[in-house]
């Protein structure tokens, strides 16, 4: 019985670390009457676009599993390589793009273009990019 309890504790510790790696503190936008669906449990890669606290509306960097990428040509190229590696190993990978509600679209567009370019370099893979929003409060 003690062994089972110990295994459960270890399992929950490991799972909490995986969830925390994807979660960045963001204020996601809320869209009423969205034609979106709740994300399933498919294999996914979460890309977070963080805002600059000193300059509202400016995207500071993109983060994938704790690894930061600048939103500039060099950073986008490194992000494309990182995503292409994941797409090669899992062609059915879904990409969840999360951005703070204050980040202007001009900072999100380069990331979306980068994700599309990454899928173009992988044979038989097509990046399925899902924009993550908050569910409307009911």
What is the gist of this entry?
39% of the residues lie in helices and 20% in strands.
Topology:
Elements: H1 2-22, E1 44-51, E2 59-64, E3 67-70, H2 73-89, E4 94-99, H3 105-120, E5 128-131
Could you describe the 3D structure shown?
The protein has helices at 2-22, 73-89, 105-120, and strands spanning 44-51, 59-64, 67-70, 94-99, 128-131. The chain has a five-stranded mixed β-sheet with strand order 3-2-1-4-5, with helices on one face. The chain is built from three helices and five strands. The chain is globular. The longest helix is centred in the first third of the chain and has 21 residues, at 2-22. The chain has one domain (2-131). Helices cover 39% and strands 20% of the residues. It is an alpha/beta fold and 138 residues long. Strand 4, helix 3 (105-120) and strand 5 (128-131) form a beta-alpha-beta unit.
Supply the number of helical segments: 3
**Helix/strand/pairing class, anyone?**
alpha/beta
Fraction of residues in helix = 25-40%
> What is the domain total for the residues?
1
Through-space gap between termini: 43 Å
Number of strands: 5
Q: How is the main sheet built? A: 5 strands, mixed
Shape: globular
Main sheet strand line-up: 3-2-1-4-5
Key traits:
3 helices, alpha/beta, 138 residues
């Amino acid at each position: 019985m003690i062994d089972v309890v110990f295994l459960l504790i270890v399992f929950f510790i490991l799972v909490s670390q995986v969830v925390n790696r994807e979660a960045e503190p963001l204020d996601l936008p809320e869209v009423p009457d969205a034609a979106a669906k709740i994300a399933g449990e498919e294999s996914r890669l979460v890309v977070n676009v963080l805002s600059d606290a000193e300059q509202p509306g400016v995207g500071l960097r993109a983060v994938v599993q704790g690894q930061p990428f600048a939103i500039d040509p060099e950073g986008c190229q490194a992000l494309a390589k990182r995503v292409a590696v994941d797409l090669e190993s899992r062609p059915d990978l879904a990409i969840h793009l999360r951005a703070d509600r204050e980040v202007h679209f001009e900072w999100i567009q380069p990331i979306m273009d980068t994700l599309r370019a990454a899928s173009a370099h992988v044979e038989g893979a097509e990046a399925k990019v899902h924009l993550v929003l908050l569910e409307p409060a009911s």
